[in-house]
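ok so heres the complex, three chains, lmk if somethin looks off
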Amino acid sequence: MTQRVIIHVDLDYFYAQCEENLNPSNREKPVIVCVYSGRTEESGVVSTSNYLARKYGVKAGIPIARAKKLLETAEAVFLPMNRSLYEEVSDRIMDMLRNCADSFEKAGIDEAYLEITNRTSGSFEKAAEIAAEMKQQILEQEHITCSIGIAPNKLLAKIASDHNKPNGLTIVNPGELAAFIAGLPVDKIPGVGKKVEENLNHLKVQTVSQLRALDATNLIETFGKSLGPYLYHAARGEDDEPVREREQPTQFSRIATLKKNTRDMSEMMPLLEELTNSVAQKLAETDMTCKSVGIIAILHDLSIHSKSRTLESPTADVKTITKNVKDLIEQFLQSMPNAVARRIGVRLSGLSRRSGQTDISKFLHG
DNA sequence: GTATGCTTTCGGC
DNA sequence: TTACGGCCGAAAGCATAC
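and the predicted structre for the whole thing:
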């Protein structure tokens, strides 16, 4: 088994950087890209912000109203999301990166993994040169900075890209691997968020080297048969996940906030129809069918609930989807007599592509 | 018990 | 002092068939 060379590319504060490029005068100001829910003038959350805004404590996920408070002394720019713009920029960058790799994996709108083992013959020095060229190309063609990690696997490449931001380049040579991760806080491990971190803290684990001291059995008992082994290996910098193009999407969903909280069918249906039409249109655009239809409800207390059902046969028909959505909402309201919805959504899953799919009758009667 | 498939929840970005 | 989105993929949880 030859040593792999993996790169993780993370586009810096991506949505906000796209907005800076659209309007360069914003580069000197805090820029906050917002998801407005439409309920009141400023209800909603921050999607992302530039580094100037972050100096004020304004970061992804906080309410817009709170961001405005934090920035009331600054001349800040609050902008609504323009997702199609970000997708276009992302698509162009991803196409550039794909051409730089032996194998390529888009891991989100603003990040990607590249395996470059073959084209570097395993040399990390050569990898650093390629990374520098990629950074330059992305900057010249799209005026976007990024942070890059180079490592022997995806796990370490991702941790490395996060190590020096923005506009950073971090190399973790195989020989430096142990020293690199040992002192890191456990929440630097992808998959270790608030909840897992709390659990680890109860076990007196705050750093990766402390995590490494736990035995596999203990980890599996505490975190289950998926996360347990993952943590055991992550503590040692081990990961053999391949870099591969992601398959077709597995689900499409649309969710939105109601003008006011309700459990009244007639107040929910217009929004549900809109969401259903939108997600069904996505299905049509991508020439897919769905086998499963589901609804999502976020209640007044922000608790999340969902219901779904599998259809007799795959469909892309709006009427069929709408009928099932309506049934599921009624079923949900009946099952939770005290539920008052704040946000509602529609989810289609069990997706498959229509074209290229052989007619089943050929198998039956071939 | 194991394999498989479906529903619901979790958590990253 | 609080404040609160819209997506996605994966895992957990559960049921059923063998």
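quick notes: Chain A has a mean pLDDT of 90. thats all i got rn
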